[in-house]
Amino acid sequence: MYRCPLELPLAEVRMLSYEHTAELHALIERNRTYLKKWFGWGDMMRTQADVQRFVSYSLTQFSQRNGIMLGIWYQNKLAGLIGHQQPIDWTNRLGWLIYWLDSAAQGKGLVTMGAKKVLEYSYNDMGLNKMEIRCTTDNERAIKVAQRLGFQTECKFRSAQWLNGKYHDIQVYGLLASEFGGAS
């Protein structure tokens, strides 16, 4: 299984497994209000069974070489997730990066470090040509991650995501394999 240390002591990314179901469910519950501001999937992962189905989907996605979803661990605790948002578009060799982090673990660079590992895997092991990050235009933390990683602003989709009772504009950022700086 995929496991990789990050540049911060006691920080790593690694594959999720079924043994992480309860810990991931508890992490989602602790951060549900925060996550709901940015993601629409929160209502689909209410129970440990829902989270176990997500872990199963992630493992299947990886085994079929159709993406990777990693846990971000900090100080031996699961602190968030990072990986491919959906199956890879193999026709265009395109993937979408998604990430979220426990509010208590933010501000340490964990997402940026973890994203570098996912990008290395995406470009070097999977042979992707491009990765995209899509986020609401008011998600300043996600935008800063995209900028730190060298993603370029590509376009804005107006009123493209229904979230919390209203439409939000979505900003699209892209990074080509040829633009990626490589190993950290």
Explained architecture:
This protein is an alpha+beta fold and 184 residues long. Helices cover 31% and strands 33% of the residues. The protein contains four helices and eight strands; from the N terminus they run ββααβββαβαββ. Strands 1-2-3-4-5-6-8-7 form an eight-stranded mixed beta sheet, sandwiched between helices. Helix 1 crosses helix 2. The protein starts with a strand and ends in an 8-residue tail after the last strand.
Task: Characterize this entry briefly.
The chain has four helices and eight strands; from the N terminus they run ββααβββαβαββ. By secondary structure, the protein is α+β, with helices and mostly antiparallel strands. The longest helix is centred in the first third of the chain and has 16 residues, at 21-36.
Quick tags:
33% strand, 8 strands, alpha+beta, single chain, globular, 184 residues, 31% helix, 4 helices, 8-stranded mixed sheet
Total number of helices: 4
Biggest β-sheet: count, sense, barrel? 8 strands, mixed
| Strand ordering within the main sheet | 1-2-3-4-5-6-8-7
User: How many β-strand runs?
Assistant: 8
Instruction: Give the quaternary arrangement of the chains.
Output: single chain
- Low-confidence segments, ≥5 residues, pLDDT <50? none
End-to-end C-alpha gap: 21 Å
Helix content: 25-40%
Class by alpha and beta content: alpha+beta
Q: Mean pLDDT, rounded to whole units? A: 92
Question: Helix and strand succession?
Answer: EEHHEEEHEHEE
* General shape: globular
Radius of gyration: 16 Å
Report the portion of residues in β strands. Answer: 25-35%
